[in-house]
Amino acid sequence: MSDEKIRNQKNKAVVWDFWQKMNHVESENVPDVIRAAFHEDVNWNGPHPINHVPGVDKLITDFWQPLLHSFPDLKRKADIFLGGMGGGDEWVTGLGYLTGTFAEDWLGIPATNDKTNIHFGQFYVMREGKIAESYVILDTLAVMRQAGFQVIPPARGMEGGKIPGPHTGDGVLLTEQDELETNKTRQIVAAMGRGLSRYVRSRDGGDMRSMEQWHYWHPNMHWYGPSGIGACLSLEEFADFHQRPWLHGFGDRSVEGDPGGRLMGMGDGFDDIVAEGFYSALGVWDYAYSIHHGEYQQVPATGKLMTIRDFDWYRREGELLIQNWVPIDIVDLLMQMGVDLFDRLRRQVEMRQRGQHWFAGPG
After folding, report:
1. Could you tell me which of 192, 207, 43, 199 has the C-alpha nearest to residue 130?
2. Angstrom distances, CA of residue 215 to CA of 58, 86, 109, 182
3. Overall CATH class of domain 3-146
């Protein structure tokens, strides 16, 4: 086994051990478990309104302690877990659910005292056997919906319940994977990404044929988007329910100057991405990607240059991609468009407290 593969296995073991210990640790020992896994000056980044948390001490006091206060029996279940090199960094990444009893308000979302599921997507940068950078998207809009609040229009795709993991149930990759299968996955994800980049809004408009995505996806592929977009259960649904509305709002494929932000699990091109076996992962954080040139989520075009927090996990079956999980920080996206979804939540909470009979079911 190469040195790179040995480091990858060690890095995955560090993160997996941290996740398992956090599932069983007593509250008074939480800080010790976190400090053992993270660098003291860790660069931690979460969804709006949490955003950037500098250093392990603030990670404990500003994120983990409030989260565990609200969900005291919180447990993590990973559906996908892999690692590898991307863009010169050592990555470990995973996706799944944090589940616990919603006992105290969290981020202004009223507690329900019911079991609540928080879908998460996570990327870690490992250095010297510890977590040096962390990027996580939590579907807070789904937590609002489970508490009975709907702050964005209903999704075009299927929404409600839990997002399924891999149909094959083999997404947690704790051991070394076959290098040939890894390379096949990396190659098809790279080709698919280059296909997406062929779209030119001024030329193509609503015609998406230039991307030739049928070459890369199974026709019955399943695409799992965040709250507000929902799941698409075929390539046709993906085009109708997500891709076409998204391109109407944010169809620019090239941005002048440095897009900034952070590339997740990849270098500047698609050929250097994290992959293991039949799975691959990549993403961007606060990355400039398009002018907001069309209506999206019932918000008129603002003309602003948008940044995005967007992760992808892919599963390949045979020669085609068949499942894709895509957490997006929709709250941050709409905030840039001048819409504060947590302010909408506050106003809906006030309505309920005044006895007004407004209700959107958890759906």
Report:
1. 43
2. 46, 25, 43, 19
3. alpha beta
Sign of CA dihedral 54, 60, 62, 67: positive
38/139 Cα distance (integer angstroms): 23
Q: Which helix (H) or strand (E) holds 77?
A: strand 75-86
Q: Is 184 helix (H, G, I), strand (E, B) or coil?
A: helix
Q: In what order do the strands lie in the sheet with 89-101?
A: 52-54, 38-45, 130-138, 115-127, 89-101, 75-86
Report the alpha-carbon distance of residue 114 to residue 116 in Å, rounded.
6
pLDDT in tens, 280-309: 999 999 999 999 999 999 999 999 999 999
**Fold match flag (3-146 vs 179-347):** yes
Q: For residue 80, what is the DSSP state?
A: E
Render pLDDT for 93-131 as a digit per residue (tens, 0 to 9). Answer: 999 999 999 999 999 999 999 999 999 999 999 999 999
User: Whole-prediction pTM value?
Assistant: 0.95
CATH code matching the domain that covers 179-347, chosen among 3.40.50.720, 3.40.50.150, 3.40.630.10, 3.10.450.50: 3.10.450.50
- Asked whether the bond before 259 is cis by omega within 30 degrees of 0, the reply is no
Cα distance between residue 361 and residue 363, in whole Å: 5
Classify 310 as helix, strand or coil.
Answer: strand
- Domain regions of the chain by residue span: 3-146, 179-347
